[in-house]
Design goal:
heterodimer, A: alpha+beta, seven-stranded mixed β-sheet, B: mainly alpha, three-stranded antiparallel β-sheet, about 65% helix
Amino acid sequence: MPSYEKIPIQIAPRVTVFAVLICILFGVLILRLWFLQAIHGDYFRDQSENNRIRQVYVQPPRGLILDRNSVVLAKNRPAFQVDIVLEDVPDLSQTIKRLAELTDRPADELLRAAKSPGRRRPFEPRMVLKDVSREVVVELEARRWELPGVQVSVIPARLYPFGDLAAHVIGYIGEISAKQLERPGYTGYRMGDVVGQTGIEARWERFLQGQRGIKEVVVNAAGTKTGEASFERELSGQNVVLTIDKDVQAAGEKALGEHKGAVVAIDPRNGEVIAMVSAPRFDPNWFVGEMPRGVWADLIQGAGKKLTNRATQGTYPPGSVFKVVMEAAALDSGVMSMTERVSCGGQMKIGNRTFRCHKREGHGSVNHFGALVQSCDVYFYTVGNRLGVDRIHSYASRFGLGQPTGINLGDESAGLVPSTEWKKRAYRDPEQQRWYPGETPSVAIGQGAVTATPIQMAQVLAAIASGGKLYRPTLVRRIQSADGTFVDDNFAPEVVGELGLDSSIIETIRTDLIGVVNDPQGTARRAKLPAAWNIVVAGKTGTSQVVSLDHREKSDAFEHHAWFAGFAPAEAPELVVAAIVENGGHGGVTAAPVVQEVLQAYFMKSRGLSVALPGTESVTPVKRVEESTRAN
Amino acid sequence: MPIDRRILKQFDYPLLFLAFFIPLLGLGVLFSAGYDSNRMVSLAWWLPLIPSEAFARQIVFLLFGVAAMLAGVSVSTGMLSRIAYPAWFGALALLVLVDLFGVIVNGSQRWLVIPGLGFQIQPAEPTKLALILAMARYLSRHPPRPGGYRFKEVLPIAFLFLLPAALILRQPDLGTAIVVASIGTIMMLFMGVHLRVIAVVMAIGLASIYPAWMSLHDYQRRRIEVLINPELDPRGSGYHINQSKIAVGSGKLLGKGYMEGTQTQLEFLPEHTTDFVFSVLAEEWGFLGCITVLGLYLAFLYRMLQIAARSKDLFSAMVVLGIVAMIFIHTTVNVGMVIGLLPVVGIPLPLFSHGGSGLLSVLFSIGLVLGIDMRRFMFSKN
């Protein structure tokens, strides 16, 4: 038998004391229960039967979206919606029938809305019609007694005062989807909430949304509202101030006109996006309220792909604009000296293939200046041949090509700059995995497998303009609360890359780009700003082939894409603009004027300049001041 | 660990019965509390679809609870004594981890996410058990002189329970911190504390009411103020207390009937499957249901106290006593809060409220008590 340790204290009496203590406290609980349930039971029973305080969610107004000068691009307007409280409806089919008659909507549609699945708290109103007209509201209010359980409420609805202006940047809103609700980014959201689906509306959703409020509504036994008290105030969403300038944006949209295409304007000093145009556009107002029939089908399946933001999602062969990268590669790697001249006879034989220059009769003997200014293909075939595809790839990567720019707008395309490595990954057949030297010349002139988005090409020019720095393009300048008390403007420019080129090389390229616009032989003379402004434009045209020349047909869809990317003032650039006009033909003819108009709009605004009307030679006073100060 | 047949003869079957009868009653109440005809839930393919999420989940928790209790039974008393201190240090380490990396839920940092496993643990539950073991071991090794513990002796004991309580308070989880501190205090008082020490501590306590009040979070202060005068804020903090009191009181003597509680079914009652589950019972079963359930709890606690009284060594007695203290505090604080006697601090009703970690922890503790009891005659020196 094991020996027991002697217990130094007496347990049993202490346990008794503890037991008594427990009994006393339980006694207190039971007394209290007796007090509540027996003595005051009738009072509380009455209270519970009259417990008719219902909590109702209040939708907060969504934050505004403003341009860089505080012009409102997205705001809210009051809208009427019709809700139904199922618990208060004695005969649902009867009520729905009457409602359908009054609002001229199909009854089954209303019934589906009223009974849509999803978690609903008791007495929580369910929306059956959104954004109904004032006439319908008057009608419904007048017949309230016929429609028990039906109520009309005023909610804030989105309004985009400029319609389709900057639609692809702003994006559109829509009811939260079941899929979105399951994502961690949407915790706290409920079925029926309206959230941003694309663009700024989606990327800054958390800030724009605000916080829903809870209102306590006191109702009588019939469910009619007899009073209300605010329980938790709703908090309006925060305002997002964009880097976009509404006027420059509008100029870009106007310049593109009926063409498909894109324009991107970036401040090379900090990466702020001043304008981002994608055409054709959609009107985000279509997504508020009931969408007209056919509109959605057109948006999704229509030939124009209106919802695509061509500026960040459209990938195109950059064509000759890519020669900017090639020139940097040629001079930095030393495969081409500053003085070396290449003779262009209109074509070049590499291996057993003949590569043509776009100018059949040839450019004669050209150095880097002549080659860029006249966009001589033979010169760049030679450069490409000497570099090889992998070195081209490496230089293009330094300019940010082949990878997303990092602009926070969602689903950005990366574009592509081929390399031997890429080909191994992209193809399975060992024959196709090999890189043939005959493929390099096409790459050297921005054709073949090379693709880039308009914003990437703007970045290429911005890198030269800024003297070698690559900033992350940004669209938001600051976030501010609706009452203006809280401001977050902690959006410092972010350098995401360095070209790592000698400054003499960058200056050489700059000079050559000035030549493209200003030299008598230049391809982009239509990009020039009014001579009196004394603002020099630099840039590069591109005309990219849609399909190879052999299969060319006489059809608009196979017309070349026109590119121009440039900046001004050439010596101290403030704005880089890249434009692509799909099937627009020659870059110098179609795209350069688009960029010219955007630059013109920008400088008119920032420097108070104006354009002399045709036929008059008058000079505005503002400009005179400008000149006189310069003379000093 | 093999369990001898002779030991099983000593098994306390009434306690085992109560430990599962109370949760079964709880399941009945939970079915009503979590009832939602629009939402059929089943947590496993072999379980039928049930229109009450709390009920479906609690069944699974209960099955795990059986395993937890078996685990508790199989731990030998000697082993308990050996792991007492490591468990305390382990719990403390978890609390510090929560402080550093915890996940914030509803504004407080209580959960620790296990990387790679995808589930979260709330270290507050194991902390209570670890504290009971460590206190039992320390107190049984350092019994007081006649007259009770003096100041110097109280200090290390207080350190044992105030340190984890302080860490839990930082989360901030006032309710659990109070429970932890109370468990420690009750166990210490049980051994005996010198009257002079008690007098001084009470004096200090009274003097620090004001600074303590000032250090409370706004919402905590609000709840205490509202407790004293619920009319102060019938829409805000008073809402919970008011709705709960209406639910309890409107049950009257015999209740509104099962599944007939309007406060519950119309969701006026907040948290009605967890912290306020007793209100559901009170509303649907009335005063009669309440005293029946409270009577069961009383029998349950009394049974365990008897085990403490008949244990043959001090460590065993103190472990059982600590567990009694834990369940007792939980029950009193929860019911007190639901009927408007105590502020709303978010303490679940043991064996009744919906929730996995609480149920598992309590059933494991009862397993420990049963194990300690049946081994009382085969004492090995710990």
